Amino acid sequence: MAQIRFDVLTLFPEMFHGFLSTSIIRKAHEKGLIETNVTNFRQFATDKHQTVDDTPYGGGGGMVLKPQPLFDAVDHLLQDASERPPILLMSPQGAPFTQKKAEELAGHSHLMFLCGHYEGFDERIRQNLVTDEISVGDFVLTGGELPAMVIIDSVSRLIPGVLGNHDSAAMDSFSNGLLEYPHYTRPSEFRGMEVPEILLSGHHANMEKWRREQSLERTWTRRPDLLKSAPLTEEDRKFLRMLEQKKRSE
Amino acid sequence: MAQIRFDVLTLFPEMFHGFLSTSIIRKAHEKGLIETNVTNFRQFATDKHQTVDDTPYGGGGGMVLKPQPLFDAVDHLLQDASERPPILLMSPQGAPFTQKKAEELAGHSHLMFLCGHYEGFDERIRQNLVTDEISVGDFVLTGGELPAMVIIDSVSRLIPGVLGNHDSAAMDSFSNGLLEYPHYTRPSEFRGMEVPEILLSGHHANMEKWRREQSLERTWTRRPDLLKSAPLTEEDRKFLRMLEQKKRSE
């Protein structure tokens, strides 16, 4: 049995085809670790034109997704469920999605995603159907489909067995709370650009020290906010104080 | 001629199929407003196994994308270009993607996206090929493909003619710097849940006041950081002070 099931409600199920049939997500399906079910909620509309939206009360532009098709779609999908899963609404108004939220969601065995497309959602959907409103960032997208894929991807890779040992290394390097140090591979010279000598030295302790300092310096330069919560050693702090002093004396 | 061309370099071009053939993006293609070209950079590998990655200098887990296939792919794609476009690397280490960045990118006629998949990029790619490193958020994804789609979607909808007047309303409501007010549509009662009476009153000025206050209160509750930069009237500030007082007296 799959360790997690993702139910997606969308008006554009075909948008998920490439994503679901590629790479890690495809392999996780094939291994039976995840199950994904994409449903077009238009099929739950009850009128002959299969209308899912209507004009807003109070006027103004845009259309609003009606409550009935989404409530009925959720009822239908959960008719055999023993408990109600988190029902996530993809919305720029939601709480920002973070790696911590991904870890929390990965602890569930079932997640539902409601994706709107241009339209707003009738407020009764937000208040009485949805359990979490999630935003993947402060930018405007055409719909909730890409954000749902982002969340499914980041949650899936936390499910045991989805990533091989090989792939999970990348995750560990993020989870130390700092930006990654620079990576280099062969050749040692390409179009006149050289690999730092220290990485060719074979001196393990020096290379580790260099990597840690590169990681600290890059975080200090680009994302100083991360340093507040990253676990730092006394030596790390000394190096960061040195960077501060160097900057002040410039 | 298209107003903007997106070149995507990826090892998983099929991941883009659903996205490119759906909704707004498909229509923008059909109208000739945008052009998208997805290239598998594996075809630029020069050895018979078409290797694009190698182990890192200095050891450690994970694989690193070699410089040669990506440098050669970019050279090939730009051989007839009159100027070098922004070359964007999708990376959790990049500057956070925002609506402002989307607007800036929409001013270009050509954008290139480099998408890695699990692997790191050889630092020489970051330093000498890439012009912008962009992150869509503090979470770990399997690759840069979904972030590239997020950026292509948000930039495309800013290209004149891509959105109809109907759709662009939603964007305007975000661009006032506040979270949106609640939307409601028919029926006025659904499963016992009612639409606020004020929206059924037909009193235009009262409805507008209610909406503004809902928008302010929601922003104040969920995303107070946005209030610092949102354009506010004296009446807005008065309402926010009232909310503060109410909270303090609770």
Explain what you see.
The structure is a homodimer of 250-residue chains. Chain A is an alpha/beta fold and 250 residues long. Chain A is 40% helix and 17% strand. Chain A has 11 helices and 10 strands. Chain A has helices at 17-20, 23-30, 67-77, 99-105, 123-128, 145-156, 165-175, 197-200, 204-222, 224-227, 234-248; strands at residues 4-10, 34-40, 53-54, 64-65, 87-96, 110-114, 120-121, 132-135, 189-190, 193-194. In chain A, the strands form 3 sheets. A 5-stranded parallel sheet of chain A has the order 2-1-6-5-8, sandwiched between helices. In chain A, strands 3-4-7 form a 3-stranded mixed sheet. The first copy, chain A, has a two-stranded antiparallel sheet with strand order 9-10. In chain A, helix 9 (204-222) crosses helix 11. The N and C termini of chain A lie far apart (61 Å). At the A-B interface, helix 1, helix 2, strand 3, strand 4 and helix 3 of A face helix 1, helix 2, strand 3, strand 4 and helix 3 of B.
List keywords for this structure.
homodimer, 250 residues, alpha/beta, 5-stranded parallel β-sheet, 3-stranded mixed β-sheet, 11 helices, 40% helix, S-adenosyl-L-methionine (chains A, B), Alpha/beta_knot_MTases (chains A, B), tRNA (guanine-N(1)-)-methyltransferase (chains A, B)
Summarize the topology.
2 copies of one chain form a homodimer.
Chain A: E1 4-10, H1 17-20, H2 23-30, E2 34-40, E3 53-54, E4 64-65, H3 67-77, E5 87-96, H4 99-105, E6 110-114, E7 120-121, H5 123-128, E8 132-135, H6 145-156, H7 165-175, E9 189-190, E10 193-194, H8 197-200, H9 204-222, H10 224-227, H11 234-248
Parallel strand pairs in A: 1-2, 1-6, 4-7, 5-6, 5-8
Antiparallel strand pairs in A: 3-4, 9-10
Helix pairs in contact in A: 9-11
